[in-house]
Amino acid sequence: MSPTAYTIVLIHGLWLSSQSLERFAEYYRSRGYNVLVPEWPRFGETVGQTCQRGRSIAELGTAEIFEHYERLLEKLDTPVLLIGHSFGGLLVQLLLDRGWGSAGVAIAAPAAPGVWRYTFVQLRMIAPVLLNPFNDGRSVSLSSNRFRSVVANAVDDDEAAELFDRYVVPAPARVLFELAFSNLTPRSPLYVNYCNHKRAPLLLVSGSDDHLVPNTITRRVLHRHACSNSVTDFKEFSGRSHLLIAERGWEEVASYTLAWAFSQTKRRNDYRLSDSNQHSPATPPSHDSE
């Protein structure tokens, strides 16, 4: 996969700014790739600016975020690798389902409609928001203690505090409502056609110590995608939390995702040359030797 032939688009998640993906961006750029790390619409260019825009982002919903990325992708004239973390990983699945991207990676992504499973930790985290219907249309903050215990539980207190100050921003409660009630909402903006045979390859990534989106949920998502003839792979990283994109050992995650994408683009090229309809599993090669 020639670096100059591809654009990598990184998509951040709820309660996090695009800066949370800065290490991935630097890693890929150092290997010659064109990397875009756009903020969600209405967000500021920095964490500080976004924190001051709570009222502006309060009514932000999934549809507006999705359309924001569609407009960005429409302007690109190179094949695109989509990599999303947390809610950004769910956006990657939505974009792949709509025909965008040459390959996609969903890291620690919550489940789309069709997967009926919520953990105690998830309910405890979002219940204070959902129990007040007036929160729909507001922005909600994440406390440092909750961030430490649920999102960055695999690092020490000092590193968690540093990551919190550097990356955490308010989240639009509307997205939380849409996510929480997606299984009960006709025509949910989060709907993914799991049986889409035409979508690009997808890699689902999970951390074994993720308290927010445990691997049991990711495996259920993997199972739902099994009805598609398109490639869906799964990778679990041992000892990693929900914030495996930024905590110690993030390089392994970044390297693996790039190697996997390389294997998929090569496989798709071989598929075109051989005119074969068979997909065979591949072990991603090491990409550190580039």
Keywords:
two-stranded antiparallel sheet, alpha/beta, 11 helices, Rossmann fold, hydrolase, Phospholipase YtpA, 290 residues
Largest sheet: 6 strands, parallel
Oligomer, anyone?
single chain
Low-confidence stretches: 270-290
CATH class: Alpha Beta
- Global Rg: 18 Å
Number of helices: 11
**Class derived from helix and strand content:** alpha/beta
What is the level-2 CATH architecture name?
Answer: 3-Layer(aba) Sandwich
Number of beta-strand segments:
8
Q: What's the SSE pattern?
A: EHEHHHEHEHEHHEHEHEH
What is the CATH H-level superfamily?
A: Alpha/Beta hydrolase fold, catalytic domain
Describe this structure in words.
The chain is of the alpha/beta class and 290 residues long. The chain has one domain (3-274): Alpha/Beta hydrolase fold, catalytic domain (Rossmann fold), CATH 3.40.50. It has helices at 22-29, 47-51, 54-57, 62-74, 87-97, 120-130, 144-151, 157-167, 173-180, 215-225, 250-274; strands at residues 7-11, 34-36, 80-85, 103-107, 139-140, 171-172, 202-207, 232-237. The strands form two sheets. The protein has a six-stranded parallel beta sheet with strand order 2-1-3-4-7-8, with helices on both faces. The chain has a two-stranded antiparallel ribbon with strand order 5-6. The longest helix is centred in the last third of the chain and has 25 residues, at 250-274. It is globular, with a radius of gyration of 18 Å. Residues 270-290 have low confidence and may be disordered.
